[in-house]
Specification:
Layout lengths: L5 E5 L4 E6 L5 E8 L5 E3 L7 H16 L6 H12 L2 H11 L4 H16 L13 H4 L11 H15 L3 H19 L28 H9 L3 H11 L5 H5 L6 E4 L2 E6 L2 E5 L6 E5 L8 E4 L2 H16 L3 E3 L6 E3 L13 H14 L10 H12 L4 H8 L4 H8 L4 H10 L7
Antiparallel strand pairs: 1-2, 2-3, 3-4, 5-6, 6-9, 7-8, 10-11
Helix pairs in contact: 3-7, 4-7, 8-12
């Protein structure tokens, strides 16, 4: 008998070690020298010697057929074969180091297009099997043809939507992880037509100063301040909703607000759940001055907030007690959708055509700051945007007045 209670017995091929356990039971461990001249095991014990022998015979047969791979790779292959697309997505999301709000968005997109495809409004029936069946498909069985089948099934049923593209990008990212984990050799999620089937982007309506003024005149008192900060100063709506009394300060230069946190909605049933997080980006943490017509009501709101009971909301570090500047009649922080709805109603009442929403204020503020001669770096610091390309390309739009000045600049110089 060997050390540790092992009883060894030579087999025709390979070796089986018996280990005595408590209660008179035994475990049998098989091992052999493979074609690579290395010792290999099953990675586990067997309840009977016969089971261990059968395993050795199976390994010997693989060698004889020249289809052998190390047992560790065989086990990984079996594991991969049992992993479905739904399981891969779940694993991928768990390993992502992202904010809860971002994870919520990813989950919603993947659920509606892959995990549990929802019935499209007005559609005569449910989504096709090409769409609903992908989640249960083993990862190793997904081919480019299957990926194309899913993609075109999604587009045919839901129409060409940006939501479809988001699902495709996330699905491809999940399969990239499968390649990194050596479950697959190549990523099968590749559909060349994806780039050609992007929905046409809606032409954005750039708000003018007159339009912003008109919207604010039609806003109710409760939401006026948040709308003014978003539409006029370009503060993100989540940042504006997260402002507390302690973030407002009167300085010799004017009223300053410290933007250092963000409110986002995490879907929890139908109502949603407010979550306090850090600003959207690192550049989002900033101190900025606001115009005088906003500064005065801002100070009044800060004084009023200190007198109200705190609002308790979930945060990254547990429950947080906040003294927000804006609350609903029931004392909670408004949802972003509620503010957007109020801005839309105010715009309609003001007779403004086109889609008006709080995020449009970032373009409005960007244009005014650029027209005032501020550098992209200074504009980015005020708006909390580090990417200069976004400032110059996404947020900035040339106004009619700027184009008229361009024509004047092209006139010949007198005397030359």
């Amino acid at each position: 008998m060997g050390k540790g209670g092992h009883r060894r017995r030579r087999n025709e091929w390979g070796r089986i070690n018996e280990k005595k356990l408590s209660g008179g039971r035994s475990q049998f461990y098989a091992r052999y020298i493979g074609p690579d001249n290395r010792e290999h095991t099953a990675g586990r014990g067997f309840d009977t010697r016969q089971d261990a022998q059968f395993w050795l015979l199976g390994q010997k047969r693989l060698i004889d057929l020249d289809t052998w791979t190390p047992p560790a790779e065989q086990r990984a292959g079996k594991k991969a074969a049992s992993l479905t697309v739904a399981g891969l997505i779940e694993k991928h999301l768990e390993q992502l180091n992202i904010k809860a709000s971002t994870r919520d968005t990813y989950t919603r997109v993947l659920t509606n297009r892959i995990l549990e495809p929802a019935k499209a409004p007005g559609a005569p029936g449910l989504p096709p099997k090409a769409v609903t069946g992908l989640a249960a498909t083993p990862v190793v069985n997904v081919t480019r043809a299957r990926a194309r089948e899913w993609w075109f099934g999604v587009c045919d049923y839901y129409g060409v939507q940006e939501f479809n593209h988001k699902a495709y990008v996330l699905l491809r990212a999940a399969f990239n992880r499968a390649v990194e984990d050596e479950l697959l050799e190549v990523n099968p999620i590749f559909v060349a037509e994806v780039a050609k089937t992007k929905p046409a982007k809606l032409e954005k309506h750039t708000l003018t100063e007159a339009e912003v003024r008109a919207i604010l005149q039609h806003m109710s008192g409760r939401y006026w301040l948040v709308a003014a900060l978003a539409l006029w100063c370009g503060i993100r709506i989540g940042e504006a909703l997260a402002l507390e009394a302690k973030h407002v300060k009167e300085t010799p230069a004017g009223v300053e607000v410290h933007i250092c946190q963000n409110v986002q909605r995490i879907r929890n049933g139908r109502a949603g759940l407010m979550l306090m997080t850090t600003p959207k980006t690192e550049a989002g943490n900033r101190r900025i001055l606001v115009p005088g017509f906003i500064g005065t009501p801002l100070l009044e709101a800060a004084r009023a907030a200190k007198k109200r009971p705190p609002v308790v909301v979930p945060s990254d570090n547990g429950p947080a007690r906040l003294y927000p500047l804006c609350v609903t009649s029931s004392g909670r922080i408004p949802y972003d959708g509620e503010v957007r709805k109020m801005v839309g109603r105010a715009a309609a009442s003001a007779g403004i055509e086109g889609r008006a929403n709080p995020h449009g204020g970032r373009t409005f503020a960007n244009n005014r700051l650029m027209a005032a001669g501020l550098t992209p770096a200074a504009v980015g610091r005020y708006l909390g945007q580090k990417d200069k390309a976004t400032i110059l390309n996404n947020y900035h739009t040339a106004t009619d007045a700027e184009v008229e000045r361009a024509v004047a600049a092209l006139e010949p110089t007198p005397g030359i």
